[in-house]
């Protein structure tokens, strides 16, 4: 509730005991007017061989725009900079996010940048959880978080999902039976829940607002923090035929972080990324959340990779300044429309070639770039790791075996298929090759493919 005192949880032992990075904590003081800085370590930019950065970009309406970064701004970008990111970019993003998520700038949150959202997510896990602590995770879950959780010694408890996201009744059941259920009875209660609510990776589906409300209520009731990883937020497919001019004003789904302002306050850390929108190799993502959590993440950064790339940040900042929020919205809508077109065409091929003859089934994706295919494999072959290496690769097609997305390791008939970079002319052939690979499994057991619901 606005004005509510903010919830504050105990951070991990590592976060509480991490020594401050002596020099970096003094960096902000260099900005005090009149300050003479004798802080060690910053090279003199005059020695750097770059005079200016000229970038050919796409303007707000898709037109050609040349951007230039030089002088003080380039010098700052090329040097060591502030741990949470370049001040102007942080400010731009805070103002943008405040409007986008209807959560005014205030003492209850701040924003920091990282080397991609992955960097911030993994550091947040470490800031909030100790070895043996428990995190709830949607099942299937973004595979990129599982190795880090395992190496940090955290226990992952899977929460079932369907096409609307987390199944709230199942989440309630898990939480209410924690002390008696075989899976959880010997575990401490969960500290966090990790979810990727829009265009889930790998599910391709999007959580409804009702689901988010239900999950947030559980977070408040059972006192855990929702880690909302939303890199596909702007890649929700536009409704066919919606006027392009509505990019700025059209309503977008409410985030957990937005709802947290109304009901919770301190139950959500939200992660976004420029990877899917502007350039994955730039390695810039950002987080919004309670200052004490983001401070712990920054302290981790200050002791490890020091800061996100200044050059990447300044490229993004100059682009955003030129676009303004309107240009950003237009760009992300163009991007979402491109993926929608691919999704529609790929789905048509997959349904015709794979689902109709009963070889696979899937939920229609609503955002992002994935299909989560359940293959119809004979029980003795129901392991898509073996399927990919022994049948798909020889058939000339690659997909990700589903087990990497399962919080608890087990055999699975699922594969994740990405259509993001597939050329249109290859859609049909990709599905045909998957079809031949599935058929090869049935031939091997000497059976014909049984009929399944499409
Ligand atoms: C759900 C999800 N979270 C995080 C990431 C990592 O993104 P970034 O490039 O910002 O580190 C990805 C990348 O695929 C993703 O799908």
Automatic annotation (TrEMBL):
Stretches assigned to coiled coil: none
Highest taxon of source: Eukaryota
Segments forming domain Aminotransferase class I/classII large: 77-434
Protein keywords: Aminotransferase, Pyridoxal phosphate, Transferase
GO term, biological process aspect, one: alpha-amino acid metabolic process
Extent of the signal sequence: none
Requisite cofactors: pyridoxal 5'-phosphate
One Pfam family this sequence matches: Aminotran_1_2
Transmembrane spans: none
A GO MF term: pyridoxal phosphate binding
UniProt protein name: PLP-dependent transferase
């Amino acid at each position: 509730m606005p004005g509510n005192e903010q919830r504050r949880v105990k951070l991990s032992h590592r976060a509480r005991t991490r020594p401050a990075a002596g020099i970096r904590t003094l960096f902000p003081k260099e900005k005090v007017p009149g300050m003479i800085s004798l802080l060690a370590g910053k090279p003199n930019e005059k020695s750097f061989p770059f005079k200016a950065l000229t970038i050919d970009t796409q303007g707000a309406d898709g037109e050609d725009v040349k951007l230039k970064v030089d002088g003080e701004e380039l010098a700052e970008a090329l040097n060591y900079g502030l741990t949470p990111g370049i001040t102007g970019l942080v400010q731009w993003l805070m103002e943008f996010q405040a409007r986008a998520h209807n959560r005014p700038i205030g003492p209850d949150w701040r924003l920091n940048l990282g080397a991609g959202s992955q960097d911030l997510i993994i550091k947040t896990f470490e800031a909030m959880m100790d070895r043996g602590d428990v995190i709830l995770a949607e099942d299937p879950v973004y595979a990129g978080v599982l190795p880090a959780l395992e190496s940090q010694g955290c226990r992952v408890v899977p929460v079932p999902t369907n096409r609307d996201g987390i199944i709230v009744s199942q989440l309630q059941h898990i939480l209410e039976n924690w002390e008696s259920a075989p899976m959880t009875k010997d575990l401490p209660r969960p500290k966090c829940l990790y979810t990727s609510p829009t265009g889930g990776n790998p599910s391709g589906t999007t959580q409804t607002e009702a689901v988010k409300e239900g999950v947030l209520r559980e977070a408040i009731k059972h006192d855990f923090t929702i880690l909302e990883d939303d890199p596909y937020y702007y890649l929700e497919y536009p409704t066919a035929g919606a006027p392009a001019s509505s990019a700025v004003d059209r309503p977008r789904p409410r985030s957990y972080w937005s709802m947290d302002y109304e009901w919770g306050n301190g139950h959500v850390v939200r992660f976004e990324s420029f990877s899917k929108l502007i350039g994955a190799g730039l390695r810039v993502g950002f987080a919004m959340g309670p200052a004490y959590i983001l401070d712990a993440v920054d302290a981790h950064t200050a002791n490890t990779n020091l800061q996100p790339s200044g050059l990447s940040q300044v490229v993004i900042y100059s682009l955003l300044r030129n676009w303004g929020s309107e240009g950003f919205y237009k760009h992300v809508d163009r991007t979402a429309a491109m993926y929608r077109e691919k999704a529609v065409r790929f789905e048509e091929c997959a349904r015709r070639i794979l689902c109709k003859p009963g070889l696979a089934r899937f939920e229609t994706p609503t955002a992002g770039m994935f299909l989560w295919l359940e293959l119809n494999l004979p029980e003795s072959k129901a392991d898509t790791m073996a399927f990919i290496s022994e049948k798909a690769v020889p058939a000339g097609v690659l997909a990700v075996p589903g087990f990497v997305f399962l919080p608890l390791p087990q055999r699975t008939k699922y594969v994740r298929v990405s259509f993001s970079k597939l050329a249109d002319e290859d859609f049909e052939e990709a599905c045909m090759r998957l079809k031949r690979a599935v058929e090869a499994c049935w031939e091997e057991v000497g059976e014909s493919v049984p009929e399944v619901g499409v």
